[in-house]
Amino acid sequence: MAAYQQINTYLNNHYDGMDPEQLILLLYKGALSRLRLTREGILEKNVQKKGENLSKAIAIIAELNASVDSKMEDDSTHFLRGLYTAILAELPKVTLNNDLNTLNRSEKYISGLKEIWEKDVMAKGRPSIPVGVKESAVKRSFPSVFKETPSDNKFHAFSV
Question: What CATH number corresponds to the domain at position 6?
């Protein structure tokens, strides 16, 4: 019991004092790590490894979705909520049929969001980024979503 409390204290202290931006970056990294471990579990035919890591990836992505500011109503925020929702709707299907395409697509989207986060939010020495710049960064990284005609290789459950 004492060891558990020490670990819990360490974890709480470790994340205390971190900027919200740093915590979001950790969530992106954690989600990507869990998605990779899920793929390994599928390829190794290790049901436990696949299931544990997939459920942790889903929990992390749900946390990222919950962290989106509910008061913001710009296009990028709507897109981000829709993307997280689509990923959260699709990932549980991986459990049923070991669908690596869905897993790869989810990893690609999360990786893209992580890159945007690192370039546009975590960049040192820059002033606060205006909403218009953030919107254009998302549109540059996911151009097919903002086209008038939808692409066939995207989540079909996407809604904004």
Answer: 1.20.120.340
